[in-house]
Amino acid sequence: MFKRKKSKEKKDKKRIMLVCGSGMVSSTLVYPMVEEILKEGGFRYEIIKGGFNDIKKYANINMILTTVSPLPKNVVEMGIPVVVVTSLFKGDKESVRDNIYEVLKK
C-alpha cells in the first residue's frame, strides 16, 4: 500500500523548468516568488532552473516559466506550456499566479 501512494505522489508532482536567458540570474531572483505561488495553490512540484539549451536534458516537463520574451522558435516548437513571469519583478503576482494555475490544473 505504501508503494502505491508513493508512485501516485510522483505522478502528481509537476515538473517546472524556470528559464532565463543566461540560465541563472533572473530565474534565481523569481524562484522564491514562483515557489510561493505554487505552495499557495497546493501543488506538488519540482522546480528546475536553467537556460533554454537545458530544456532538452529533462523529461516530462509540465511547464516552462521564463523571464524571456519572445521565446526562441525551438522552444515554442516543443509544445510545452509557457508562462512569462517577468511581471513578478513589477509586483504583478496575481496575473502570473492565474496563468500558472490555469496551466497546471489542465
UniProtKB/TrEMBL annotation:
Statement: the UniProt record of this protein carries the keyword Transferase: yes
Residues annotated as domain Phosphotransferase system EIIB component type 2/3: 15-85
Protein name as catalogued: Phosphotransferase system, galactitol-specific IIB component
Record GO terms (molecular function): protein-N(PI)-phosphohistidine-sugar phosphotransferase activity
Swiss-Prot/TrEMBL GO biological process terms: phosphoenolpyruvate-dependent sugar phosphotransferase system
Keyword annotations: Transferase
Keyword Zinc set for record: no
Annotated signal peptide: none
One Pfam family cited in the UniProt record for this chain: PTS_IIB
Cited InterPro entries: PTS_EIIB-like_sf, PTS_EIIB_2/3
Coiled coil: none
SUPFAM superfamilies: PTS system IIB component-like
Top-level taxon: Bacteria
